[in-house]
Amino acid sequence: MSKRIMDIYCIDYDSQMDNGNPVALEQWYGRLLNKKVDDLNLEDVSRMLGQRVFLELGIEKAMEILSEDPLAGEMYDGHLLELLYGIELDEFQNLEQLEILIQHIHASLSQFGWTHQEEKEEYADLVQRFIAKF
How far apart are CA 112 and CA 100, in angstroms? Predict the structure, then answer.
């Protein structure tokens, strides 16, 4: 998508309105609004989900990232899936596609390169809890 997020959501954001010392979250938000959807990265999507901003877009991008790398995470393996699990999905438009993705991740668990059995078990538990949400 070639539009900036601020254009998609019709947000008139003036970075000059910030106080003299914007905190990191304000700086990120200003950068986020000026990004095009295709330019969103793992950090952006993780923060979007964590801060509960632009959730529909954040969920869509998280699905794209997780379809490529089910263990994606900014802080640790599986962090993105954990953030996504924490979102209330009642109003998400593409719930069926998300369910298919989670089922695919579940079916592929044994193929991931786990360094510790405990990590595998924790991730598998998260996937199971996610499936139960549907």
Answer: 18
For the whole model, what pTM was predicted? 0.90
Please report, for the chain, the start and end positions of each structural domain, with discontinuous segments joined by +: 1-39, 43-133
Average pLDDT per 10 consecutive residues for the chain, totaling 134 residues: 89 66 86 96 98 96 98 96 95 91 97 91 97 94
What single-letter DSSP state applies at residue 4?
A: B
